[in-house]
Amino acid sequence: MKLSKAISVVTVLLLLSTTLFGQSNEELYKGYQFYFTTPGAHALGMGGAFTAYANDVSAAYYNPAGLASIKKAVINAEGRYANWKSFRAGSTDAYLNDTLTEFSDSAFTPSFFSIAYPIGNFALAFSVTNFVNYFEEYSLPVRELPGGTGYLPAENGVIDINGYNFHGTVSMNISPHFSLGVSLGITLLSQNNSSVVMVFDEANPLAEQTDASTEVETDDYDTALNFSLGLIYRPIKPLSIGVAFQYNPSMTALQNLYIDGDNTSGMLYDTIYSHFDTPDRLATGIKFQPSDRFIVAADLVYIFYEQLGDGLIAAKDITELGIKRGDSLSSYFEAENQIELHAGLELLLGNLEAPFALRCGIYTEPLHMIRFKGSLINEQFAWNLEDYFSELEDYEITLTAGIGFPLGQSLAVDLAYLYSNNYDQFICTFSLFL
What we know:
This protein has helices at residues 9-16, 41-45, 59-62, 94-97, 306-310, 385-390; strands spanning 74-88, 101-119, 122-140, 143-144, 151-152, 155-173, 178-198, 212-236, 239-247, 250-259, 267-277, 281-291, 294-303, 333-334, 338-349, 356-366, 371-372, 395-407, 411-419, 423-433. The protein is mainly beta. It has one domain (3-433): Outer membrane protein transport protein (OMPP1/FadL/TodX) (Porin, Beta Barrel), CATH 2.40.160.
């Protein structure tokens, strides 16, 4: 992976102002694509193509209309093990040689829990989804810039973001051809992020430094309302068409800036509020079942990633851009809206009342890093920012596989595995039918 494909938002701004430490300062969010996880080993084993299928309790996320298809009361619990990678300028000559250092972390988390109960043509559910759980630590040395133009100081950072959705869902079969559903819930997002820039010695720039110069710290949480709406239409028996919209809120967190040291040794210079806008999601999909044992599904999902850039603010004055501390940076940075493609297959073996299921799928994950927009050339370094960001890769492809099987009369297990260049995940879902 080339370094020029991962220039971060504030790395570039540091080239404009050595006094700048923004919300996403030098390395904090580089390479972090805001991986919002989705629930359901059944759905994920089929590449997440579940908008029109949605026949289990994970419908509360994919399409609330599908919840009306459940026949029995069920308790659902899910665990997820995830391993992810990021790439940063982790060596002194990284910018000279155009190379990156790989950092990786992993975590296990209870990712989904739901209770659902059918009542005639209706179904009710309560669910909890861990939609983001990301942790990373990094430590970077002083890095020399090309052309003898200077150095970036050493930096240590932590990214710790955790988010939950608590949903109540109501779904109804209004006719043999139509189902409707709605979910209303609360989003809880906690952030414990820190970026400490070390003291820089101009006389001996490559000397190892142990004293902190500044720190940008976010340690806060916020709650807000969310909702989703869904429709499933079954024009003929083997075909279903689904549409779902998910509204996600803007979250606020308190951000502290310390100077002449870190949060234990420095002085609290200022406190401002940063914003984290979770993207809305609009999905449409089809499910085709040519036989009782074979199912094909596909989704198009439009994700409003531009909302990620709406909350960016400046943590210090940026005189080159005429920006004051606390001003919005949304005019200068963006994350582009993207369309994800999802497709999956399912083969049912054995007794159709309690089958053994084989699944596979694929989906695209287009680039949605926060990036500089426009063209701005700094006279000192003469770097055209637009050229750098135009070299970013367009998307990643994730491959998925899964199985599902019964354990007795009342218990079922679904397993899924997801693999891409940047992460791999293993998901296990237990369903207890009452």
